[in-house]
Write a structure and sequence with these properties.
32% strand, VC0467-like, 191 residues, AlgH-like, ten-stranded mixed sheet, UPF0301 protein FHP89_18130, 5 helices
Length: 191
């Protein structure tokens, strides 16, 4: 018999909410959606850090004509510090694309160009968040960061990602836990 064991933690389809003490500037005040978490590590995308690029500009850069205006003005997001030259599309419904990490029946994370080709046409009806880069953790790394109180976690509510403006997502995720971020501040009491 072993000593005390803890159940395997699986944060797939959860939010990671950066604590005020988060020292890594890549993740300070970020809300990250975890698309996969298993024994090998974790993978997710930051969903509240838009960069100064619209999807229209991104489509121009990959030489694709954007026939539909539906996505043109949506911002591209900094998804994390890994592979920042590659695009990742967090979307619902999950659909059937050539390179999709299917999170569950509702949502997927796709890195293949076929989803962009679909978005470029009038008939595409996906909720999307497009990032450059992703966040990745090696085996045990995320668990250690959680033990070090770097993150709060909450089951993901995709309406926060797809229905709220980027600047409201962090606070909305905190509200899932019934927490006001101001109450967590390390310098509470300063106006």
């Amino acid at each position: 018999m072993h000593g005390v064991t803890t159940p395997d933690m699986n944060l797939t389809h959860h939010f990671l909410i950066a604590m005020p003490s988060m020292a890594d500037t890549n993740f300070a005040r970020t809300l990250t959606y975890i698309a996969e978490h298993n024994d090998g590590g974790a993978l997710g995308v930051i969903v509240n850090r838009p960069i100064d690029m619209s999807l229209a500009t991104l489509f121009e850069r990959v030489d694709m004509a954007l026939e539909s205006d539906r996505y043109a003005q949506q911002p591209v997001y900094f998804g994390g510090p890994v592979q920042t030259d590659r695009g990742f599309v967090l979307h619902r419904p999950a659909g059937d694309w050539s390179a999709t990490l299917k999170v569950n029946d509702e949502v997927g994370l796709t890195s293949s160009k076929d989803i962009l080709q679909a978005m470029a046409t009038e008939g595409c009806d996906l909720d999307v968040l497009v990032t450059l880069g992703y966040a990745g953790w090696d085996a045990g790394q995320l668990e250690q960061e959680l033990a070090d109180n770097a993150w709060l976690t909450a089951p993901a509510d995709l309406s926060i990602v797809f229905d709220l403006p980027a600047e409201e997502r962090f606070a909305a995720a905190m509200q899932l836990l019934g927490i006001d971020f101001a109450n967590l501040s390390e310098s509470a009491g300063h106006a």
